[in-house]
Specification:
- By secondary structure, the chain is α/β, with parallel strands linked by helices.
- Among the domains are: about 220 residues, 3-Layer(aba) Sandwich (Rossmann fold); about 35 residues, no CATH class.
- Helix content is about 40%, strand content about 10%.
- Helix 1 runs antiparallel to helix 2, helix 1 runs parallel beside helix 7 and helix 5 runs parallel beside helix 6.
- It is elongated and about 135 Å long.
- Its main location: cytoplasm.
């Protein structure tokens, strides 16, 4: 069982690709010298299978033919590109089919759908249609069959892509545009009912390069595509949506909000004008009475912190020694906050020593 068999919904889940190829007589028309239109389609499918197996070796392939109905080629399911190409070479256009029932495609691959579900693969049908005058018929039966299959297999449904190879348009000769429109409507109905975003491509029968390009565009896993339009969220009604303000309107609204916020703030406390303060200073300088009435500035001494026992004692400034070597007060007494009498009373021997004990030593 492949690695994605446990119901994994990731994009690397292997596929079972069914190539449903038109075998109408119109596919015998020459595409390029030496190649018919059917040969060009077979070459493009061979390129597709080889590249697809390099992406994931668990991919499998099968063949179906489009006559008046879709018919599965017996025992065509294989994982080998060589075996598939051998069965493809055994096919050939045979006869003309004036009608084609597109609703027969889901019924033709019903058994393969069950097989892919059991093996954990995703079933995808690649429809190659090549008639320029036969408009395929597909009514509600095709969508109902796809919807029934989607409900029976957990919503996986049937993924269908289409490549339309046609003659160049010629009035009153062929109707490729009508055929393409019918294919597009029918394939979209099948895909939307199964939750698949279908690719419907077209190219003229002689443009082999474009045919190869379209096949390369189908290589990617269908689960990597966008959801179909029916599964997308509804579009926004621009008429009912509110109008967005212009940049100038947004700027005006921001300025109005700033002005309202400024008006809501309380006004600042008034301060005396600078001219009045200067006039009061000049009046104090010229009028001594006004200066006396003015309150004295606070003393720096009053701002000193108090100690635990009360206010700190005032600091005394040391007096400078006069020119004669004496001083107006004792330096140590100034430091100790004592006067000269207290020093003399505490040191009685100092005066006696200075007066008669040692005449050469003076205090």
């Amino acid at each position: 069982m492949p690695r994605a068999a446990a119901g994994c919904r990731f994009a690397h889940r292997p596929e079972l690709v069914v190539f449903a190829i038109d075998v109408d007589e119109e596919m015998r028309a020459e595409a390029v010298p030496g190649w018919s239109r059917f040969d060009a389609v077979a070459h493009a499918l061979a390129t597709f299978v080889t590249a697809k197996k390099r992406l994931d070796c668990n991919h499998q392939f099968a063949l179906a033919t489009l006559k008046d109905r879709a018919e599965l080629v017996p025992d065509s399911v294989t994982g080998s590109p060589d075996a598939l190409l051998a069965r493809l070479r055994a096919l050939a256009p045979a006869g003309r089919y004036p009608s084609f029932d597109l609703a027969s495609v889901p019924a033709a691959v019903e058994d393969l759908r069950r097989r892919a579900h059991r093996s954990g693969r995703l079933l995808r049908v690649l429809l190659v249609y090549g008639r320029s005058n036969c408009i395929p018929s597909a009514g509600p039966a095709a969508a109902a069959a796809a919807q029934q299959g989607a409900a029976a297999f957990g919503g996986r449904g049937l993924a269908v892509d289409c490549v339309y190879v046609h003659d160049k348009p010629a009035p009153s000769v062929n109707r490729p545009q009508e055929v393409y429109s019918a294919l597009e409507d029918a394939v979209d109905a099948l895909a939307v009912a199964a939750g698949h975003s279908a690719y419907v491509f077209e190219t003229s029968g002689g443009n082999v390069k474009k045919l190869l390009t379209l096949m390369s565009m189908l290589l990617a896993h269908p689960m990597q595509r966008q959801l179909p339009q029916a599964r997308l969220p509804p579009a926004v009604d621009l008429a009912a949506a509110p109008l967005q303000p212009l940049p100038s309107e947004r700027a005006a609204a921001a300025a109005a909000a700033a002005a309202a916020a400024a008006a809501a703030r309380p006004p600042p406390s008034p301060s005396p004008p600078v001219g009045a303060a200067a006039a009061s200073v000049d009046a104090a300088a010229t009028d001594p009475a006004a200066a006396a009435r003015a309150p004295a500035p606070p003393s720096p001494r009053a701002a000193r912190p108090a100690s635990a026992g009360g206010a700190l004692p005032p600091l005394q400034r040391l007096s400078r020694m006069d020119s004669g070597g004496g001083s107006s007060s004792h330096p140590i007494a100034d430091l100790l906050h004592l006067d000269d009498g207290e020093v003399d009373s505490e040191e009685p021997g100092a005066a006696a020593l200075g007066s008669g004990g040692n005449p050469g030593v003076t205090r």
